[in-house]
TrEMBL record:
Gene behind this protein: LOC105038252
Cell membrane found in the keyword field: no
Listed name of the protein: signal-recognition-particle GTPase
GO cellular component labels: signal recognition particle, endoplasmic reticulum targeting
Keywords per UniProt: GTP-binding, Hydrolase, Nucleotide-binding, Ribonucleoprotein, RNA-binding, Signal recognition particle
Organism per entry: Elaeis guineensis var. tenera (Oil palm)
């Protein structure tokens, strides 16, 4: 719970104020609701999301008394838990696979978010699911990124398709897909160029790559440390190129939780996977109920 430490204790102070209360009323939940609101805002959850959340929890809470031996304050914990799960998309959102031929997963993201690491982690994860993978190096701006991918591919034991930097990313991706078809590889993971910030070149290039390989998944890699900014990025990329979901990295850091809580509600797109460390095995599906459990401590 160290990750959401502050959020957890902020929420706790809300229920602690309702100890010994017989029934939750508009009056006695007012201050606890302010605690919840403050805790969420401090965790960098976006304001409209916080407003809707508190509104919904309040509506469900008013009138709640002792039910089958469960105290009202304990029931508020349950209401908040369920509302957190809903906020994060409810069910786990599995990766989709193509019905026939290789599944193409296109990865996008700003520089430094952990995109290259995610390529390798994802290949490792898919290998464990029994799927063969091909990594495609379509970041033509940084030769070092290609080298990094080749090294990671060796570590995972997955082939890496490269064509240098003198050819368009959409062509590299297309040729990579052809290679995968020839070798009957299950999943093609395309690594694209990251930039320090969004610009037209990046978006146009992504659109071109997407058009060239018709990916089943277009996943935006975002850094949990950036809080609600991550949710804003997911929204922008979705509007610009159309994405299927997000991968949230660096959840092992002292992230305050805002990204995990805002992405689905703000962008309409689910978080599909989370990275919680630098090792290859540190990538796992995003389970809203487990995350809610961790937040509640
Ligand atoms: P890229 O520029 O998006 O390709 O980023 P990289 O994959 O090169 O990662 C940037 C840095 O973040 C590297 O030092 C990674 O080891 C680190 N990193 C990536 N994912 C995670 C993660 O989930 N947790 C932690 N703690 N570090 C990560």
């Amino acid at each position: 719970a160290e990750m959401f430490g502050q959020l957890t204790s902020g929420l706790e102070s809300a229920w602690n104020k309702l100890r010994g209360v017989d029934v939750l009323t508009k009056e006695n939940i007012a201050e606890p609701m302010r605690d919840i609101r403050r805790a969420l805002l401090e965790a960098d959850v976006s304001l409209p999301v916080v407003r809707r959340f508190v509104q919904s929890v309040s509506e469900q809470a008013v009138g709640v008394g002792l039910i089958r031996g469960v105290r009202p304050d304990q029931q508020l914990v349950k209401i908040v838990h369920d509302e957190l799960v809903t906020l994060m998309g409810g069910e786990v959102s599995d990766l989709a696979f193509a019905k026939s031929g290789p599944t193409v997963i296109l990865l996008a993201g700003l520089q430094g978010v952990g995109k290259t690491t995610v390529c390798a982690k994802l290949a490792f994860y898919l290998k464990k699911l029994g799927k063969s993978c091909l990594l495609v190096a379509a970041d033509v701006y940084r030769p070092a990124a290609i080298d990094q991918l080749v090294i990671l591919g060796e570590q995972v034991g997955v082939p890496v398709y490269t064509e240098g930097t003198d050819i368009k990313p959409s062509q590299i991706a297309k040729h990579g897909l052809e290679e995968a078809k020839k070798k009957t590889i299950d999943v093609v993971i395309v690594d694209t160029a990251g930039r320090l910030q969004i610009d037209k070149t990046m978006m146009d290039e992504l659109k071109e790559v997407k058009q060239a390989v018709n990916p089943t998944e277009v996943l935006l890699v975002v850094d949990a440390m950036t809080g609600q900014e991550a949710a804003a990025l997911v929204t922008t990329f979705n509007i610009e190129i159309g994405i299927t979901g997000a991968i949230l990295t660096k959840l092992d850091g002292d992230s305050r939780g805002g990204a995990a809580l805002s992405v689905k509600e703000v962008s309409g797109k689910p978080i599909k996977l989370v990275g919680r460390g630098e090792r290859l095995e540190d990538l796992e599906p995003f389970y809203p109920d487990r995350m809610a459990g961790r937040i509640l401590g």
